Predict the 3D structure of the following.
Amino acid sequence: MNNEIAEKIKGMLVERLRIPAEELEYDSELFGEDIGLDSIDSIEIIVGIENLFGVDLSGSGATREDFRSIETLTAFVEAHKED
Amino acid sequence: MLNEKRCVITGLGLVCAIGHDTDECFESAVNGRSGIADAVSFDTSGCYSHKGAEVDLTDEELTGGKKYDRTTALGIKAAGEAIKDAGLDMDSEAASEIGVLLGSCIAGAACVEKYYNDKHDGKEGSVEDLKSMPATVIAGNVADYYNAGGITANIVNACAAGTLSVALAIDMIRGGKGDIFLAGGCDSFSSLAYSGFHALRALAPSDCSPFNHSDGITLGEGAGVLVVESYEHAVARGAKIYCDVLGSGVSSDAYHITAPRPDGEGQMSVITRAVRNSGLEFTDIGYVNAHGTGTAKNDESEFLSLKTLFENNKELYVSSTKSMTGHCLGAAGAIEAVLTVKALTEGKLPPTTGYSDEDLEVLKEKAGDIRFIAGKPVEKKIKYAMSNSFAFGGNNASIVFANDPNVLNLSCPKQDLYVTGIGIVNGEFDEEKGDYTVNLDADVFKSYGIKSAFLRKLDRLSQLQLLSGLKALEDSGITVGPDNEGVIGICIGTNDGPMTEIANFQKGIIRDGIEKGSAFAFPNTVYNAAGGYLSIATGIKGYNVTIANGFQSGLQSVCCAAGAIMFGYESIMLASGTDECTEIDDEIYRDLGLTGEGKMTLGEGSVTCVIEKDSSAAGRGAKRYAKIAGFSSARDTSGDRSDIFRLSEASLTKAVMNVLEEGGLKPSDVSCIYGFGNGSAELDGFEREVYKKIFGDDIRIKLVKKDHGEARAASSSLQFAMLAKDISDGKEENGIAVSFGTSALYSAILLTKA
């Protein structure tokens, strides 16, 4: 996993969604019991990732599974990021 | 039987994208002429949608040249028509008793945009824009414009605000707090709302298509104002009467901050409440002007609610006029109320527009037995019509109009009301910031079972509100559950509401573009988010209203709560006052010149009091702090009406004398006053002098703001709560809590021993 990308995604989640940093691990289930995100948060994640990496999650066919954790989001960004 | 007091509609005023007055709007609506076009107020080129339903009049054209924020300007336009239509002489003595209750969602958004644009460009923001930003000034400004001297209130429950203001007018009249009100709502087209709904992907790509393609809303702007009057008052002045307004319902979803409950429970609850409150059956209703926004979630749950409740009504006509007016947010309910009154009284029911032949085929299946009006109007004489509004925060409101005066069969014998719980969240002095700030500790919320996944969504105002609400429920010993969730309600007063969230959202748009608004932040820019979160966290499903009306809002929330108990379904109301003090607030009050040496020091906090009727308190053996022996608001238009901060000895005296009369006390019987003094020399001197004249030199004035700062609505609630505690502790026999709003509004509440 690309730690640099993961750390940026974590920072974005903490800032944009006010998730307490100490409760957020790379493998925390974002939409499950752990963090409890919902559909509004997913829109915010799409905008946040696009601003950070220029990757359009909705346009690039991201699935529910890709939104599962920071790890899965990082993998998706790595695979779709144009350098 | 207070509910037997008839309320009638005697005047109408309307301005929106389909017309400049009621007749023009109604003609457009009946003929299916939509006002939706490409938006011109701001640049939408970066957005996926470009539509809007804007009013083609400038601010100056709306007000006859005077300068106001556009939301207020739209309200002035509609109120002017309603006044003329009702034949009211605003230069006569009678004008002094006309109250103004206006709903708004986005308030002074145009001024917020201008102010922060100026600041972004390195200019000094205008003080006039600052004064016009909060919702708190709208009704006072409209009342002052027309020399209306009655009570004012701004109802800020997002998209249900316009309907709620009419509901509140009925409660006020039935409660003997006034005989005639201009009630309605106004909201301007704004980059803030556009950006927010765009971020939520809730804007329709093209013209909205309610109950049809259901792919989103189209935002609009406008205002609707109805003259709501007691029947006796209308007859005495020989007024033309359009129809009766029979009753209302208000409920909370307790589900989600933006989405309605998919099972329609909250909507069905509010419709049922309104039908029952009007003394009717579901089969009596002939027409429903639906909320019908055009989002999939709304349209699905609303169709479900209507089909379920009106299953046995084979003659129910339904349409959504938002297909033509756009969604005018806080004005929507008021605009639709005016159109509903016209439909009822003229026997012409407006259609929902935008249906192709193919769509009509699909509709047949979706609508079932409902006679859904699409494409063409229906000519039909009906007796009873209903208008529904469902808002962010899970706030639902419904009102019923009648062509003939139904014999109201409700009995609501007047019961004594008690304070049975208190929750206080106060600020402490922060040397560094120079104001009074609350330390909001996540662990405290955890001790109440609030998870961090929920808490993180709440802005500071909502967190303050939630905490005082939880404390009050705990103090009162009330556990919310299936047995009582529907009979508990919420009434929140605030002066500045979520101004921090509004300002930060607007700054974000200015920096990043309208298309880059935050979906996460937008829901917290509405004034009733705090009340919505409180209902979601606690499961309270009854009445839910937020009033933004100056520093006295914490006291007015108690007055409103009393109305909800007397005329609604509630046995228990949480009445709160809440305001925050952030860097944004510090900046605003400094720029207004209201803080600093020899002036007030800002504070923040939230205070919630549980107001409960006698039978409920007795039934559960509740502890009683004090009895509410009288409540009153008063204002006038003497002095310089262009000065919203003016003081009025006459109004303050009237509010105090009213509660004494209601409580059967003389000035010499009063043990103490919990006053509003905040360290401003002029204000404090004025207050002392007025009390001396009423009560004599020896009256004891207790002040809370010297210890906790000027926390605005939270302070006025704190005055009320401290008085209740003092009476309960035997320190005082009785007392009056008093506070002030803008445009010379004062509220007073008399508490006596329980």
